[in-house]
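User: What would this chain look like folded?
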Amino acid sequence: ATWAGGASEDELVAKVGVNNLGYNEFSGQLRIDSDFYSELSDLTLAVGEIKSIRYNIDLSQVKPGTYDFVASALYEGNVVQQIGTTIEVPGAEFELTSKPDKPVFIPGEEVTMSFKVKNTGRAEGEAEVHLTVIDLLDETRMVWIKPGVEETINFTFVVPDDLPEKAYTAPFQLNGVTTDIPFTVKGVKIAVSASL
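Assistant: Here's the prediction, encoded as structure tokens.
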């Protein structure tokens, strides 16, 4: 028996090659097994006959990951030949491709921080993005992105009039991976004096 196959976004094409190297006709079954798929079919091979059996397996409901796949030739319910392989069910992979470059904000203005996220994987999927801007913004967004596509995610907030002039950091998370975004507020200097 031989094994060949490959997974795309929503389908696994598996080919199992079987060859009767014995001296008698083989009449049995071929079983395909994995964590998410199993099929049993009748198999008859003349002496010296080679067959290639193709399976088109729907992956649309299968979580991305690595899976073991086993093909077994059975005779009267007993395994006479078995071959296995590991397949990778592709998933979405996300990359932060653009982020604000040390923006400077003025108190009182409405500002937008823009981020670009690209799906560099082979399947579409949902990216979770989260931005925290001191106590002004704490927002999570779920963005569905197709493979090869880059999406822009905008976060808009108002810089308070009384926010002190200084450097700040806004943590941005993409699927749990944090990137700190430095920004500066200019224009308000607060001084307090008292006299009697």
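The CA atoms of residues 107 and 163 lie 6 Å apart. If you want, I can go into more detail on any region.
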